[in-house]
Amino acid sequence: MRRWTRFWDRREPPTALALARLLVGAVLLVDFAQIIGYGLVDVIFAAPPAGLAVGKPLVAHWWGAAAGGRTFAVAFAALALFTAGAFTRLAGLTFALASGQLSMLCPDADRGIDALLRVVVAVLALSGSHARWSLDALVRRALGRPFPALVPAWPRYLLYLQVVWLYFSAAHTKADPSWGPLGGFSALGYVLSDPHYARFAPGWVSSVYPLTQLGTAATIVFEWGAPLLLLFHWWHVTPERPGRLRRWSNRFRLRFVYIATGAAFHLAIAATLRLGIFPFGVLALYPLLFHPDELRAAARRLRLARDPTPVAASDPAWGRDSSSSA
User: Fold this and answer.
1) How confident is the model at residue 51, as a pLDDT?
2) What's the rounded Cα separation, in Å, for the pair 143 and 136?
3) pLDDT tens across 8-33, in order?
4) At what angle do helices 227-237 and 254-272 cross, to 10 degrees?
5) How many other CB atoms sit within 10 Å of the CB of residue 168?
6) In the chain, domain spans
């Protein structure tokens, strides 16, 4: 029990959480801005016959016929504050509640990525994601009461598990034979030929059809293998322990291979399919798969690649090292 308590009570720099807050907020802001730009706010969230909103959430009793537009405005304003890190906790929870009300107004418009990022925003709001790169941090610093250099790590662990479950549960939903050998691994070929989703005319698919079959099989293996990421991570942070599989995993960097494969999948989806913010929304969570010290080391290497001048070991812009690994 003590070991379990110590695990969830670990502290680390807020870098990964802050970066996820900025990326998730940016993706959602672009999505909301597109809804406004296309003039779809009333179309989606107004009651029939003017719109598609058929639900009766709590806001309908408060704001009547204007519930959809006003709730959307509250969600958009709260999201902007959350992304900027202003009143972060209140703004994040307000957005999660307003977004939930919008999903009740028009359930057909609430996509899986909306539900996922709604949960992510709520968790980030309860975390130390505003301890860096936020207006809250600037104000606290100006008042002489800066945030601690280390924040609780449990929100990152929780969202790490959420990403693993996202992929593993996606594998469970792919029950159609086209995703397996009985269907000839034809799923991606069908999707890339569907004019509703495909970015390009389907003529090119036939020339690369074997590659789409390989991509279908790789997708299934990747998603069913999602729990292995936890094992790869454990082996990565305990290299001193014995075990041939641990040595092989660390030697071939299987943890990073898995993460890079996922990033490549989402970039390929964004390039070939029209799935809205889905690929970008999931990629916005990828910083949470790394310990903040790893992100700092990567930033340091990029900095050195541009400027060969050595960087000091303790960089106050990133905060001091945490005392334990994730």
Assistant:
1) 87
2) 11
3) 899 999 999 999 999 999 999 999 99
4) 140
5) 16
6) 11-152
